[in-house]
Amino acid sequence: MAAGYLEILRARHAARLLTGTLVGRLPNATAAIAMVLFVRAEGGTYSLAGGLAAVYGVANAVGQPVLGRLVDLYGQPRVQLPAAVLSALAMAGFAFCGIEPLALAYACVAAAGLFTPPLEGGLRALWPSVLRREEQVHRAYAMDAVAQEVMFTVGPLLVTLCVSLWSERAALLVLNAVGVLGALSVAVAPPARAWRSAPREAHWLGALRSPGLLAMLGAFLFVGIALGSITVASVSYADGHGGDAVYGWLMAGIGLGALVGGLAYGARQWAGEPARRLQVLVGFLAVCYLPLTLMPGAVAMTLLAVLAGVFLAPVIACAFVLVDRHAPVGTVTEAFSWLVTTFTVGASVGTGLAGPVVERGGALWGFAVPGAAGGVSLLVLLVTGRVLSAPVGRAVVASSSENDPNRAAEPRFSSGDRA
């Protein structure tokens, strides 16, 4: 499997695009954690922290598909870099104004979320232009999911490192500045500059006219709720078991578990229907959240956090294949951005929901939310299984190369049965 990953990374521009995307997404990946710690440092409540994180997430949910559609229409450089700069400036405004006046704080986090660049969807739109074989693209999806977990493992530790070295405010500023550099690296890369989307049918719903994509979004809303609720519940648990350092280790543990799970998932090619495979993976994900309610000591709890993350990356990697399968022609960036949006909305809802739950019932009830949300996600997949398994017409994606920037589009790879 390592050889397969190395083959992908040796492809021209692949490592740069992957690294730049991960670095560019660091502000978004750490936003909830950084904001929760910042609000607490400013004297705010859990409910306020959850509310601000929820506003950021909702604004992000609105911005991602809109910016994704603009990428499909106008290309990546014209959208990604300006959006990254605007988002970073808005978060800097929040860092300097604090939680008072409250209206300004909400406006800043809303703007930061709204202008978060759709780097994740953009990368998945670029893979077919960088990797020419179908099995390489599918393996890149798995590698993409694994690499994200490296970011989610390192991200919380970077936040706590910045806090320990400087302050909660510095964590917000530094991570967003680094994010702009990542977006810049992607935006000026030759594949991003050459990429053009396939001609798309004019339709106000865009990618949302696909029933299969809608089914995926419904399921991933609850996966996001599960992950978002853990963020707030873990803060409450850490307050009684060692403070911010324990919180960082719990979040890193979830990322580490997903990293291990993703590596194991990508170690083989999977036969069978991906829609059915996703049902199984989400079922295991929900079950692995339940032991968190035991709330043992910090070391054991970190190990349970690792277990809770094991099936996250496999779920995401399998979902990429299904989104690629069901995205209408010319909407590939928008379709992947909708998945990001739905996951972000779910995480924000989970964060906002867990705040009052923790304040009323403590961390125990906060950790009960993820298991319940995972169960609902599985139910959605079971109900919509026929839609997700139904054959769809092959779409077209842009695959312009730097050597032929005027090439129109190439056939999209079949989503097949391998992730």
UniProtKB/TrEMBL annotation:
Keywords: Membrane, Transmembrane, Transmembrane helix. GO terms for molecular function: transmembrane transporter activity. This is MFS transporter. Residues 400-419 are annotated as: Disordered. Pfam families: MFS_1 (PF07690). Residues 404-419 have a biased composition (Basic and acidic residues). The chain crosses the membrane at residues 17-39, 45-67, 79-96, 172-192, 213-234, 246-266, 278-295, 301-323, 335-358, 364-384.
